[in-house]
Structure formats: C-alpha cells, structure tokens
C-alpha cells in the first residue's frame, strides 16, 4: 500500500470525527493541598531545646508507601557519615517504639525522646514507626514521623533501618551535639593546649 492510499484511508476513517472544543483536564483526585501556613511551618525548623509539640503539624503530611525506603540528609552532613548511618555502622544507643500510639502521642514522645537523647549526648537512635500496611491511609505514622524529623533542626539525617532492626518500619536517626556538649568539648580541648 502506498503512502497516498494510507493517507486517503485515514481521511476516510476520520471524516466523521469532530475536534474537541474544551481540551483542559480538571484534577478529580481530591488530593489535599497544604495551606501557605502549613508550608511555612514545614519549611521552618525547630530546635529540640525549645521545642513545642504544637509546632509539628498533625494536619498534613506527604504520604509515603509502607515499603518505601526513607532517607533524609541535611545540607552539610558528609556523605561518608550518611553512608555509615545507612549501613547501620553507628552504635544505636537508644530506641523509641511508636506502635499503638496516636499521632499526637507519637509527636510528643518523639520530641521528649530526642531532647533526652541530646541532653545525654546520645547521637544515634532508632525510631520504630512501623510500616502501616493496615492503617488507613497506609503508612500514616511513617509519613508523619519522616516529616516531623525534617522539621527538627537538630536532626542531621535519617535512613530506613537494616532489615534485622526493623527495615522500612524503622529509622536510624542522627542528632547534632547539644550546645552544652559542644561547649564542654571546646573547653576540654582548650584546657589541654600547652
């Protein structure tokens, strides 16, 4: 069949087709869009020392999947440090399990736990949030925990744990040194100088 015959056949088949008058598509998914205030709250970060649980929103979180590997690294964290965290090479010195907690209770417990860890100079912890395969929506706790940790400026980075420590249902979290510990370290170094 020649190109001309194909073209004629195409025109014949399309002869009764009318052009579309309205070609825009409306989004019918009904997904929640965060307000400007919620976005501003998400972008600002809060220090653990003066943390307020109300600061961490219970209204909206970017939802993730139950088996999704979660990773977050604040600017300035060295790639080698993040890689060691991801591979579970740091000693985990404290653990928080959020199973069977409400979002509000979990939010309060995370802040209390991280504050206490920072005061005690515990830098690497594990937070078990679960995968949330049976929650509605799925992975709700996991989604909120990841969002909250990014809002806390004293959290340097986090990564989903290795399988034997909870896998995608848990996070390794690395904290900054507290201001007091930074000052102690600095003074100790200065006092040992000749």
TrEMBL record:
Q: Does the keyword rRNA processing apply?
A: no
Q: Which residues form the signal peptide?
A: none
Q: Which domain of life does the UniProt lineage start with?
A: Bacteria
Q: Which residues form the Smr domain?
A: 96-176
- What is a single molecular function from GO for this protein? endonuclease activity
SMART domains cross-referenced by the UniProt entry: SMR
Question: Does the UniProt entry include the keyword Hydrolase?
Answer: yes
Query: Which Gene3D superfamilies does UniProt cross-reference here?
Result: 3.30.1370.110
- Record key words, sorted: Endonuclease, Hydrolase, Nuclease
Protein name in UniProt: DNA endonuclease SmrA
According to its UniProt entry, this protein's organism is Salinivibrio sharmensis
